[in-house]
Amino acid sequence: MARLFIAALAILLVAAVADRSALARVMESGEASVAQQAMPAVVNISTWKLRPPTNPGDLSRRVKTYGSGFIIDSSGIIVTNKHVIDGALDVAAIFNDGTRLHATLLAVAAMLDIAVLKVEADQPLPALKWGDSETLQVGDPVLTIGNPLGIGISVSAGIVSALNRDIQDTPFDQYIQTDAAINHGNSGGPLVDVNGEVIGVDTALYNPDSAGFIGIGFAIPSESAEFVVKQLLDPSHPMPGWIGVTLQDMTPELSEALGLHGVRGSIISAVDADGPASKAGLQPGTVLFGLNGVHPADSRAFMRAIVQVPIGQRVELAVWRNGKKETVSATVAEWPNHMPGGGMIGAHMAEAMIQRMPDPGVRLAPLTDTARRQYGIDPKLNGVLVASVEADCEARDLGILPGDVVTGVQGMSVASPEDVRLAVQAAHEQRRQYLAVLVQGRNGGARWVSLSMGSAH
After folding, report:
1. Which class would CATH give 22-236?
2. Which distant-in-sequence residues (6+ apart) come within 8 Å of 403 by Cβ?
3. 357-452 maps to CATH 2.30.42.10
4. Annotated catalytic, 113?
5. Do domains 241-334 and 357-452 have the same CATH topology?
6. Which of 4, 6, 44, 433, CA to CA, is 20 to 30 A from 185?
7. What does the domain layout of the chain look like in residue ranges?
8. 154 vs 321, more confident
9. Which of 187, 222, 452, 455 is catalytic?
10. Distance of CA 265 to the CA centre of its chain
11. Taking Cα atoms as reference points, which of 256, 254, 280 lies closest to residue 267?
């Protein structure tokens, strides 16, 4: 009997393992299908920005930065993060097949990390659909798709780790937390569900020691992102609603301290003197617990509800003040200091920047006998010594190192730093996008590299 029991148990265990293996294969197959469906609509956002000079008197350097984005309309409408394009001189969308298209900024949300771009293509582009982030539950499987660390479009799998996270980025925070990898460069990419629909915009990662992704990433829920994008694309350009209050959650401790035993809601910590709330008689210490009959879960939900109310519409606020419940009316106003530019440099400013020759971040020096001995350079080799390379410039990314020798620029031999400077200046005046440089590497043979010159359209 014992043997029969053990045999039966063994069969059950094998079946269980087989079932789990089969389930794993099904899940992997499903993720692969979703990824293949979504990836063509995800783009690498390549931007040029100005890096402040390292030393007084130096020129600002154009540096290339990377982010991600995704197409939401076949006409070429792309959603990304505002911080991806802040301060950009030029923006390009690079598709997974290598296609590169110039992107035009349509609009940015000054108070939410969302920007909308547009590319022009010869044919309809693949697009992703918005999903419903309101139905998400902790533990739901998700994929992040984007351009981590600038290495190219990549996919990572994980789950929803938490909902409604407040990372104190905006007054409206309700981030989705996920353990699907979000690294630098993933910003602006989609967080997709099992249906391949966008349920979040990858935006931030938690890395207290700057060690990269440690399993805690954050995405703006599609509920908020979709609403903001629709507002940004609306020709009437509706502004966010505002009543002029700063709110915080009413904790049990605050309730106890203020003698408001058991009262829940959002307590006012500051009131704008010229705002609708002030005109309605609201003051710091007043507790808001309802808006038009709805009871927002926390202060951030309250702010999101106010933002979505049309300008000029009156709202009924359920408040607790002077020891009793009251209803107060306030007229929603336009949020002041709304900045449509959102940090994007205008066309005229960009043109002025383009007129300045870029600093490639490389310092050159004559090729002396001392340098030849220091770096083991062939005595017969002629050219210009790379004396130093900035840590965060494109030349470093291309593998150019101190001790390398520049032997040619744009097909012409060079023998001095001045030869190189004149070649760079000529290419800049010709509005070339790239500069062809022949480099003899200290650790290898000769190779051509293309240094970017910035925008040229």
Report:
1. mainly beta
2. 374, 375, 377, 385, 386, 442
3. yes
4. yes
5. yes
6. 433
7. 22-236, 241-334, 357-452
8. 154
9. 187
10. 32
11. 254
Q: Do 83 and 49 form a contact (C-beta atoms < 8 A)? A: no
Distance CA 154, CA 223 (A): 25
Secondary structure class of 219 (helix, strand, coil) = strand
Phi and psi torsions of 449, nearest 5°:
-130, 150
Annotated catalytic residue within 83, 156, 193, 452:
83
pLDDT of residue 210: 58
For residue 199, pLDDT beyond 90: yes
- Residue-wise pLDDT tens digits, 332-378: 988 775 544 444 444 455 445 444 555 667 889 999 999 899 998 88
What is the DSSP-derived secondary structure letter of residue 312? Answer: T
Question: Is 209 in the active site?
Answer: no
* pLDDT recorded at residue 357: 54
The CATH architecture to which 241-334 belongs is: Roll (2.30)
Closest residue by Cα to residue 246 from 260, 266, 265: 266
- For residue 450, the cross-strand partners are 436
Annotated catalytic residue, options 86, 90, 113, 359: 113
pLDDT for 26: 38
Q: Any catalytic annotation for residue 457?
A: no
**Residue 23, both tokens:** 């389930």
Angle made by CA atoms 450, 455, 457, in degrees to the nearest 5: 115
**Which pLDDT score, from 0 to 100, does residue 231 have?**
83
Tokens of 307: 């933002």
* Separation between Cα atoms, residue 208 and residue 205, nearest integer Å: 9
